[in-house]
């Protein structure tokens, strides 16, 4: 069991590096004809340099992360932690939290220290970064607290249920995960406000345009906001979020600044397209299947004594069992990513087609090109990486689909 877990862990890490290499290998490919006008030569040079810097850095960063996690496994670090905490407490929840929390904490600290370099050196060099150290620290703390509360909460619930109803828990948890996903969709407008300031959009051409679009498409809007993303980055985005019939529309202030009104309307029409075509609902069966699969794997693996014993524990440690399970199923999860991303890319084409219907081909195509331009999107991704990891189709294929 030990060899199996460590081998899978190493193979998946190598596979991750291989995908990064594939992206690197396509860096000098010819740009497809229909997206040649996205960058001028100088900007394209800057784009490539930025991407290669990011890629090199992410290879270093994930190597360090991988080595640390590998050492945790090789030296039975989780069990060492367990021994330590078990001396002062035999509360199963506390010890479980501790066994998973400390490695998570160490990983988070390492990752965030590396993203300091990423944000304040690389992004700054290419004039993307607008984050101040204070915003960065606050963002870090907020995400950390959310991760601990959500992760800790779900883990405790899992353990309480296991204690109370045994194996029925796996079925109960299936429904809990569904409720949890609904809950996240419900509170996502609030979650956004934890990180960004939303100001109602001022009256004017843009607001009128958005209202007219909503009218035309029969889309109910709860509020239209400008999102102060420029405080953090120059990258562009827009979203329509919320639960039920009426949605909150958020437009990044960077988007408002860089795109024409027609283009912004096209971006928004794309988002409305997702809602109109019920894309969330349509991806639900697949997500449920995934949740079911993970819980089935959990049922077979986490309470297996070998899973814990292979890494120093005397008997079953459910929390550590969850960790072992996550490693064991990671190749299958990567495989599941293929159909999930195919479905997502299909939905993107549909949303683009909807945008074209509402705002015309010109505005939609130029909006897409500007988004890629400002976000320094990759015009020559490797097809294998696209198949495995791209939730959005490459730009040239999106433009071709509009034609
Ligand atoms: Zn989309």
Concise overview:
The protein is mainly alpha-helical and 403 residues long. 74% of the residues lie in helices and 5% in strands. The mean pLDDT is 89.
Structure, described:
The protein has 403 residues and is mainly alpha-helical. Helix content is 74%, strand content 5%. The chain is built from 15 helices and four strands. The chain has helices spanning 2-25, 41-74, 77-86, 92-125, 133-165, 168-195, 205-217, 253-258, 261-276, 279-301, 305-309, 318-359, 361-374, 383-389, 395-402, and strands at residues 198-200, 221-227, 238-241, 247-252. Strands 1-2-4-3 form a four-stranded mixed sheet, with helices on both faces. A hairpin with a 5-residue loop joins strand 3 and strand 4. Helix 1 packs antiparallel against helix 2 (41-74), helix 4 (92-125) packs across helix 12 (318-359) and helix 13 packs antiparallel against helix 15 (395-402). The protein is globular, with a radius of gyration of 23 Å. The termini are far apart. The model has no long low-confidence stretch (mean pLDDT 89). The structure holds zinc ion (ZN). Zinc ion (ZN) is lined by residues 270, 274, 348, 351.
Helix content: over 70%
Average pLDDT rating: 89
Relative strand content: under 5%
Alpha-beta content class: mainly alpha
Low-confidence stretches: none
Order of secondary-structure elements: HHHHHHEHEEEHHHHHHHH
- Report the principal-axis shape: globular
For the sheet with most strands, the description reads: 4 strands, mixed
Radius of gyration, whole Å: 23 Å
Bound molecules: zinc ion
Number of helices: 15
């Amino acid at each position: 069991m030990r060899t199996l877990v460590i081998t899978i862990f190493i193979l998946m890490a190598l596979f991750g590096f291989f995908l990064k290499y594939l992206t690197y290998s396509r860096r000098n490919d010819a740009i497809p004809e229909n997206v040649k006008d996205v960058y001028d030569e100088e900007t394209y040079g800057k784009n490539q340099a930025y991407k290669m810097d990011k890629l090199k850095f992410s290879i270093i960063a994930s190597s360090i992360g991988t080595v640390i996690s590998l050492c945790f496994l090789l030296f039975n670090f989780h069990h060492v932690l367990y021994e330590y905490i078990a001396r002062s407490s035999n509360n199963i929840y506390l010890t479980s939290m501790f066994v998973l929390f400390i490695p998570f904490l160490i990983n988070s600290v390492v990752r965030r220290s590396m993203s300091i370099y990423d944000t304040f050196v690389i992004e700054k060099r290419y004039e993307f970064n607008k984050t101040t150290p204070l915003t960065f620290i606050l963002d870090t703390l907020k995400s950390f607290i959310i991760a601990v509360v959500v992760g800790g909460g779900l883990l405790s619930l899992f353990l309480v249920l296991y204690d109370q109803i045994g194996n029925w828990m796996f079925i109960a948890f299936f429904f809990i995960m569904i409720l949890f996903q609904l809950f996240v969709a419900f509170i996502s407008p609030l979650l956004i406000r934890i990180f960004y300031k939303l100001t109602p959009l001022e009256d004017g051409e843009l607001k009128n345009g958005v209202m007219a679009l909503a009218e035309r498409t029969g889309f109910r809007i709860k509020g239209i906001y400008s999102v102060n993303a420029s405080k953090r980055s120059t990258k562009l985005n827009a979203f329509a979020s919320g639960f039920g019939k009426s949605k909150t529309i958020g437009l990044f202030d960077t988007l408002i600044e860089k795109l024409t009104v027609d283009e912004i309307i096209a971006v928004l029409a794309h988002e409305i397209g997702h809602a109109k075509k019920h894309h969330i609902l349509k991806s639900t069966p697949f997500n449920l299947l995934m949740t079911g699969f993970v819980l089935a794997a959990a049922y077979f693996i986490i309470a297996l004594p070998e899973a814990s014993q292979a890494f120093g524990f005397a008997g079953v440690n459910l929390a550590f069992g969850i960790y072992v399970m996550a490693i064991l199923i990671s190749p299958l999860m990567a495989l599941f990513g293929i159909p999930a991303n195919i479905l997502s890319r299909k939905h993107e084409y549909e949303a683009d087609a909807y945008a074209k219907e509402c705002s015309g081909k010109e505005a939609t195509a130029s909006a897409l090109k500007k988004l890629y331009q400002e976000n320094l999107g990759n015009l020559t991704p490797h097809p294998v990486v696209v198949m495995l990891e791209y939730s959005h189709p490459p730009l040239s294929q999106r433009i071709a689909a509009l034609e």
